[in-house]
Amino acid sequence: MDTLRVLITREQIAAKVAQMGERISLDFAGEPIMLLGVLKGSTIFLADLARQIKLDATFDFIAVSSYGSGKQHSGEVKLLKDVDHSVEGRNIILVEDILDSGLTLTYLKNMLQAHRPKSLRVAALLDKISRRTEPVHGDYVGFAIPDEFVVGYGLDFAERYRNLPDICVLESGSETR
Ligand code: IMP
Ligand code: MG
Fold it and tell me: What number of CA atoms fall less than 13 Å from residue 60's CA on the CB side?
């Protein structure tokens, strides 16, 4: 039996996302940006963040596989869907739901840098700093969280729970990490 415990409420998320949007708007004042969401976990965050950014902004999405259906990182990252629009010469803000080991972000940063964007920054709603194995960080980070598996607000466990409005810790009876 799965148990859900609220870790971050929808109100806390909304306040934080507004701050992040304000920060990005100030940092890129007068410049166009491209919000590049990593499917599917970042979609709800991207939708809310985009509406807090007062800039000329476009959207694009990429998809990678890293986790399979469980809680463990498979150790390798594979590109499932590339960008639709060129990133060359653009201000790219990579939008991630959560930074964990950092493997996904390292892979994506290397891939994107090879296409010479004007700038590349990372906005991540959540950061599990204690889990990091790669030397990467987010430029705009919402919440640092402890090493617990979370779902909701776009984050899933085996594709479920993405639609929860709050971020919750998934405490499962049988599953271990
Ligand atoms: P990393 O490559 O280990 O940094 O993993 C990043 C990806 O793993 C995120 O984009 C999520 O899709 C997934 N992930 C990591 N931790 C969690 C979690 O607590 N809940 C749900 N997904 C997670
Ligand atoms: Mg996932």
Answer: 17
| Active site amino acids | 100
Three-class DSSP category at 32 = coil
- The residue to mutate among 98, 136, 164, 167, having the most atoms of ligand 1 within 8 angstroms of its beta carbon, is 98
Helix 43-50 / helix 10-27 crossing angle, nearest 10 deg: 60
Residue with tokens 């010479």: 116
pTM of the model: 0.93
Over the chain (177 residues), the average pLDDT of each successive run of 10 is 94 98 98 98 98 98 78 79 96 97 94 97 97 94 97 96 98 63
If 0-12 CB within 10 Å is exposed, 13-18 middle and 19+ buried, where does residue 88 land?
A: exposed
Beta-carbon neighbour count of residue 157 at 10 Å?
A: 19
Residues enclosing ligand 1, CB less than 6 A?
Answer: 41, 66-67, 73, 96-105, 149-151, 155
Ligand located closest to 149 CA: 1
In this structure, how many other beta carbons lie within 10 angstroms of the beta carbon of residue 17?
Answer: 22
Beta strands in the chain (DSSP E): 2-8, 33-39, 57-65, 78-81, 91-99, 119-127, 140-144, 150-151, 167-172
Using DSSP, state whether 48 is helix, strand or coil.
helix
